[in-house]
Amino acid sequence: MNYKKLTMALGLSAFVLTGCANSSATNTQKGAGIGAVVGALIGKGTGDNAKSRYAWGAVVGALAGGAIGKYMDNQEQEFRDELADSGIEVVRDGDNINLIMPGNITFDTGKASISGNFYSVLNDVALVINKYEKTTLQVVGHTDNVGADSQNQVLSEQRASAVKNYLTQNGVDNRRVTTMGMGESQPVATNDNAGGRQLNRRVELTIVPLTS
Description:
Residues 94-211 form the OmpA-like domain. The chain is an alpha+beta fold and 212 residues long.
């Protein structure tokens, strides 16, 4: 891992989050900002993800030019159709697609086991992902601030891994997926009340096109 790049990305994420906290930005806007930072952090801050993208790109080929936007437009629409009324927020950020999965539908408090009623939703996510194979996935776990920092870091990593494992069990190639846990470091709402903490307990999945 390139720690200099990781430190820079974390600093940028703190800047974005401070801006969100001090503005009237909607959850969608906050999600888009966070997705962009996390995409930069994982995509550029770690060598492992680059290797994974190159490996998968060698298998399925890359997109180029105007085909990129059209490919992601079609995929975005299918996510919106499949995930309507599911509780997952679909946020477009340039050519990337962010799926924001709040804690009230994914995990119980303090747990890393996927809630039983969320399996069918993840089945729909896997269905679309498997149809659009010229993408890679970045799964990032987050927590609220209840408990020790170290415990929350581990929990966020476990939650990201749980989502990855379920997707790969449903046909998503393991080479397409990387995971990361951010602990409690990137809240999108206040941790001073139950509603805010629920929003902060989340997993974000960013779908990134393979480009030449």
